[in-house]
Amino acid sequence: MAQFHSLHFLQGNINHCARAQDLLLQSMAEWSIHVAVVAEPYFIPARDNWLGCADGLVAIIGETLIDPSRGRGWVAAVSGGIVIVGAYFSPNKNLADFEGFLVELGAVVGRYHPRPVLVLGDLNAKSSAWGSPVTDPRGEVLEEWTVTTGLVVLNRGSEYTCVRQRGGSIVDVSFASPSVASRVRDWRVAAEVETLSDHRYIRFDVSAQTASGRHPTTPINDGPRWALKRIDRELLEEASLVQSWIRESTTDGPVDVEAVALWFRGALTQICDASMPRVHQRSARRQVYWWTAEIAQLRIACVTARRRYTRYRRRRRRDPAEEDALYEVYRASKETLWLAIGDSKSRAREELLGSLDRDPWGRPYRWVRGKLRPWAPPLTQTMQPQLLEAVVSALFPERVGHVSPAMASPSATDSPEEESTDVPEVTQTETRAAVSRLRAKNTAPGPDGVPGRALVLTLKELEPQLRGLFTACLEQGQFPSVWKECGPNVGRLVLLRKEGRPADSPSAYRPIVLLDEAGKLLERIIADRLVSHLCREGPDLDENQFGFRRGRPTIDAITRVRALAEETVSRGGVVLAVSLDISNAFNTLPWSCIREALNYHRVPPYLRRTIGAYLEERCVTYWGRDGAGRCVMSCGVPQGSVLGPLLWNIGYDWVLRGELPSGADLTCYADDTLVTARGSSHREAALVATAAVSQVVNRIRRLGLEVALNKSEAMVFHGPRRAPAPGSHIVVSGARIAVESTMKYLGLVLDS
């Protein structure tokens, strides 16, 4: 049976006041508000959870805002399946302007039809329909507009939404389409709190139906977690020793890699339980970073002073002097609160920056980089189920039956003689090298919850057992499913939002798969053996592939491009550079291409078999509002894995091995592909570039990858009087790529 949860809404006007905006954000945290509409904000920060109108007069604040639109005095977006329209209209404009504004606002509501709609804002119109004691001309026009658009008024009672020294008014209004109005609960004016504005908050809830009834901000139990800072190393070593004894006493016969991998995971869980406490599921913080108990008391004092003043004003007989004195107490209380918030924010910033010397890469660094965030539910839990399913399906498309282009000669395929080749045992040196890489990182734990640093400590006793398991995996050509995304509560998908892209587009999300650290150690050993084979026996990867290769940093790729350009320009020539955008590259590379590339590079059969098992039967598990979802993988390499980037390079290397026209070069950093073409003039360079890009795009497509030519960029390096004519471009596969004077590549801006 379907159940309900509620979305919490907040509406207000903060009169362009900085401290009122601070207080609004605290109120949102305290009340777990999902969506807020704020008129006259102090400023609108450039964050994904803020969406402002064209002239900064109204904003929507919410975690997931999709399908946005905006105009002068209004902004709209969809959140939680509901269209939210925020609006503000100045009291200083005339009635004709107001009527024109409502026509535009009505068109906005119509554009989102038939989806449920909320229209919230301060329209500076008075009407008895929403509790005002008088109806003015604006109110009459707004009443007619409400009927025309089919909306209903949510305002209840006659509590003022705007209160000034000499009176009050009801100008903040809430409208809803009937389908939403029937689900609105507890609409009220929050007269019990101070806002530091002459407007009061409006609060209400909207019940929403889901199949599971899970609240979007409720953390889902996604596996155990332990408090690593409270680890008892002595207990951990003792527990590891006990597990080692247990394993030695039960070792008999051939190794069942699936069973042993499951045992190892269970052993790690017991060791962690014995040596450190578990971390309980987190809940959203109920306060902003600068909030203190003192400020909370000052806010209460403000409310008390205001109530005394408003109660006195309701008396029939009043002493003007006493009334002014009570108002002065209220005003002073507000000023004290205002100053306290400013002082608290300043102290918090000073404390944060003061810790820079003690912890240069901790909180100050993450704050500057924008990585310090209050707890929020995983992105997948805040997205609409239909959107989440569409995004996951687009990021992990189904691709079976793709035929890879031939890369290897028939002699490179498996033969009976090769199948019988002995598999080198995993050595202590290999294991410790992999462990040292793990020790140097501080990444999020996988689905088993075991921190990497805790795993490192257990290997003092369990390393022989783990090495034996790794050797058995390589001998049998298996990769345990417990270390892949197979099964419930094993591999978890995390979506990271990319800035500057619409929230309803799959390209706005980067998928990361969280994997057990023990499985990553096996991946590291396989990757190290692969790299060793490529370097010593080969064929090695193309020298112009710089991505994910030790000793080949990003700056080397940039330096190569710069050297090509400087050499050509110094001789009076021109270089045209074209950056190609490969759509969803890592998640769509067919496995058939990886297998064929492994044959080409003459990778030992035992590694090919193990990598084949690593790729097969993978799936991603994710948590949405309606519970767990699962998507089977049929192509691509997992982002968040150790082996994935290397397999991408091996599969994509065929593109770099292709012949290019004279004067053309190819530089790659993983999937970032840059074609450069040299010529004595721009026209000659453009002809070379057109031919080279066409060949490269054709090879990329033969790998089963898609090039987004509409997102590709081009620029030209030239000397004096060698600039191309305005509007220059090249055409590839019918797509026009404009030639600019600058281009962003590998995070840097290249300039002609």
TrEMBL record:
Instruction: Quote the Gene3D superfamilies the UniProt record gives.
Output: Endonuclease/exonuclease/phosphatase
Q: Where is the Reverse transcriptase domain?
A: 477-750
The alphabetized list of GO BP terms reads: DNA biosynthetic process
Q: Cross-referenced PROSITE patterns, in alphabetical order?
A: RT_POL
GO MF terms, alphabetically ordered: catalytic activity
Q: What would be one Pfam family of this protein?
A: RVT_1
Q: What is this protein called?
A: Reverse transcriptase domain-containing protein
Question: What InterPro entries is this protein classified in?
Answer: DNA/RNA_pol_sf, Endo/exonu/phosph_ase_sf, Endo/exonuclease/phosphatase, RT_dom
Q: Which organism is it from?
A: Parnassius mnemosyne (clouded apollo)
Ranges for the region named Disordered are: 404-428
